[in-house]
Amino acid sequence: MGAVTDDEVIRKRLLIDGDGAGDDRRINVLLKSFTKWCNATGSPEEGFTQYQRMLGTLAQCEFSMGKTLLVYDMNLREMENYEKIYTDIEQNITSAHDKISECKKEIQRAKRIRKNRQEYDALAKVIQQHPDRHETLKQLEALDKELQQLSHIKENVEDKLELRKKQFHVLLSTIQELQQTLENDEKSENDDTQESSMENGE
Amino acid sequence: MGPVEHLHMSVFSQSFSPCGRFLAAGNNYGEIAVFSLSSALSPDATELSQTPILTFTAHEGPVFSLFSTDTHLLSAGNGEISAWSWAELIKRNTKAAWTRRPNYKSSLEIPEINAMTVNPTSVLQGHTDYIHCLSVREREGEILSGGEDGAVRIWDYRTGQSVHCIEVYKYEECARPQYGKWISCLTTESDWMLCGGGPSLSLWHLRSMSPTSIFPLSGCQRQANFYQDMILSVGEGQCVSHCLLGGEVKAQIPCTPHSLNTLALNLNSTDNRVLTVGGSSHQIDVFTNLSYRTFSLSF
């Protein structure tokens, strides 16, 4: 454990050192020049220039530190931004999945509907080939009426036939009766004359 | 199996296992090959996964018909019917569960299992020639059969009587006298029936017993199926025809065999929903999307 963290520390220090070669060196140089300036034995102008130089270096160090802090802030915010985008995309993916399954169900439904429509069309085609029901009913009615009329006429004609038959029958039977009566009369006349001649003859 | 035999092989029948992961196919040499669909469809499939996991000789003559029940695979060859247990086949054990000879000469088609268990001893008489195809309407309790004599007979399986007889070749719009009057494919779905063969493939409405649509497909159709709102049919051409119920041919998808004998849809499983077609070639085409051929399994 200790070895691991040591490695980590060494790695970090190397990184920092490698990256900020200027920065670390600058701080060391500042420190050295500060100690040198504290123990300075030269002229006050030299000391002043050295002091100015040190302030400059210090400012540079502060500037680079400020920059790193800002970069760090920026990284944090970028991370947040990416997290947000990531969650957004995940949501979109799930909603797209849902939409896809919805659409699949729709397709199934639409296919069923299409199938039903086609079956209906196919049957309708066959039905169209047969004549219209109303037409046929009307024709049937007309035919019925005709049939009735004709049977009426037939009845009438039959009745008349019967009547005429009966009339003829009556006529013929009267004729026959008359004939009979005439014959009877003739016969009785003949009988009478025969009887009277027989009576006269005796 | 040399290359010459491969060249002359025809696949006559196919059947999916009840779990949907295996396909059994029968060819004209009397062999049945079992393919593992799950390995052939997996993302890391190789050449090897497109060959059978098991091939065995089931009959002396060609295996004309295969049918799967919940536990067994029934196969019919020249005059005998054998049953193989799917569990045993998956374990590569090729011993038949039973073999029976029905008392007629040669069988070309297996009736669906309902018919066999319900009336094992009754014989439906009425056809005058070979029977090529059968279909069952469970809701109405009817069996339909179509055969060489051109008649589609509808039988009530409880009484064993022929309820209707449709002579397809007598209808002008369906008949194609140049091909003959035999019926080689028959399938039903609720009130509708598809039949074809010598006469053109036609869609019939069974309640009114009238043909509603005729499909303008050249060649004789050997097998047809209803699928969602379409009709899939295979036959003499080198393609699978997709048709709409109204009578138009929507698409013709090309396949490897020159003439197709059998078409099977795997609706038992949700992962391996494929369409497979086989015909006069040793290759069986597999379609994962109905619009194009994905790959071929090879005997």
Structure, described:
- In chain A, helix 1 crosses helix 2 (21-38) and helix 2 packs antiparallel against helix 3.
- Helices cover 95% and strands 0% of the residues of chain A.
- Chain A is mainly α.
- Chain A has 4 helices and no strands.
- Chain B has a domain at 131-223: Thrombin, subunit H.
- Chain B contains 4 helices and 24 strands.
- Chain B has helices at residues 3-7, 37-41, 86-90, 113-118, and strands at residues 11-16, 22-27, 31-36, 54-57, 65-68, 72-76, 81-85, 98-100, 131-137, 142-147, 151-156, 161-167, 183-189, 192-197, 202-205, 210-214, 221-227, 230-235, 239-244, 249-254, 260-265, 275-279, 283-287, 295-298.
- In chain B, the strands form 6 sheets. In chain B, strands 1-2-3-4 form a 4-stranded antiparallel beta sheet. A 4-stranded antiparallel beta sheet of chain B has the order 5-6-7-8. In chain B, strands 9-10-11-12 form a 4-stranded antiparallel beta sheet, with no helix packed on it.
- At the A-B interface, helix 3 of A face strand 16 of B.
What labels describe this entry?
heterodimer; A: 202 residues; mainly alpha; 95% helix; B: 299 residues; mainly beta; Thrombin, subunit H; 4-stranded antiparallel β-sheet; 4 helices; 24 strands; 7% helix; coiled coil (chain A); nucleus (chain A); THOC7/Mft1 (chain A); THO complex 7 (chain A); WD repeat (chain B)
